[in-house]
Structures are given as C-alpha cells and as structure tokens.
Specification:
The structure is a single chain. By secondary structure, the protein is mainly α. The protein has one domain. Helices cover about 80% and strands about 0% of the residues. It contains nine helices and no strands. The chain has helices spanning about 5-20, 20-35, 35-60, 60-65, 70-95, 110-120, 125-135, 145-175, 180-200. It starts with a helix and ends with a helix.
Amino acid sequence: MELGVWIIFAMACLVLSVIPGPSVLVAVTQAITNGTRAALICIAGDMLGGVCLMTLSIMGAGAVIAASPMGFEFLKWMGVIYLLYLGISGIWPMSHSPAAPKLASQPSKGSFKVGFLTEIFNPKSLIFYMVFFNQFVDVMAPLEGQYLLLMLTAVGIGGLVLSGYAIGAQHFKRLISSSATQTKFTGLSGVLYIAGAGFLAITR
C-alpha cells in the first residue's frame, strides 16, 4: 500500500470517528457516570468489538448481512434494546432518589462489556467496514498485510478519538461544583444511552 493512500485512509478514519455516534455517546456516558478509567476500559471493549467486526467484514459476513434484511434488523434492534436498558437503568434510580449526588457506578469490568456489545450490535459498522476497506486495498498486492494495516489504523484512530471525548467529558464534569447540578448532569448519562439507541434505531 502506498503511503499516500494510507494517509488518505487515516484522515478519512479521523473525520468519521469525530462524528458522534453510539460509541461516542457510550464513551462519554461512561466518563460521566464512572470516571475516566471506566471510560477507557469501555473504549478498549469498543476497539475489540471493532476488530471483530472488521475481521468478519473481511471474511464476507458484511455481504451476508447486507443481503439479509432480517439479519440486519435483528442485530440492530438487539443493540437498540441493550442501550435502552442501560439508559433506563441509569435514569430510574435518579427518579426515585432525586437528592442522590450521582448515579450508582457500574464495575469497570462491566464497562468493557458495554463498549464491546455497543460496537458488536451495530450491523451498519459490519457493512461499512467491508465497503470502506475495499476502497483502499491494492488487489494486485498481497491483501493480508494491507487489511491488517487498515484495521490497526482504524482501531487506533477510533480509540484515540473516543478517549479524547471521554477525557473531555470527565474534565467538564469536574468543573461543576453544585450538587444539584451534578445530579442533573449525571442524569444525562442515561439520556445519552437512550440517544445512542436512537442512533441505531434510525440506521438503514
């Protein structure tokens, strides 16, 4: 793969990663609710999920999902239900304990699962990777090394961007001193999960 092609691919990954989506919302939510460490663990789960989807796409699973509307819809709505569950679970305790200064935190190991499942239940990513990667490979050269380079680049850039969002969200939260404002702000985490579900729900 030529250096110029790789640079164009990396820039495209950067632009696409900055655009808010379910993964961004989940990373920000983890930062708000459980702190930076939990958010970074969540991002690691998201990155592993991305590697799995990229591998499946390269193997042709993306084409199968694209040709199977029922399979696409099943994966999509599994993701929607999961994010809705997280959102409602976050908002419900606050509605019954409005004076609580923050939401009950989840274990960090649970954060990894949240990130992984959010990514793995996004069928749009599976199809996208299959189409996107093929725009940059040289079919006249060995494909294994090219796909590996593209995967590492996409995962690395995505992880860095998500980390930036998470650290920024946690820093913003620290600027809030009022406990009442803290309560409202942390309540936003449940709303963000639900917003992530909305992103998946409108996927076509």
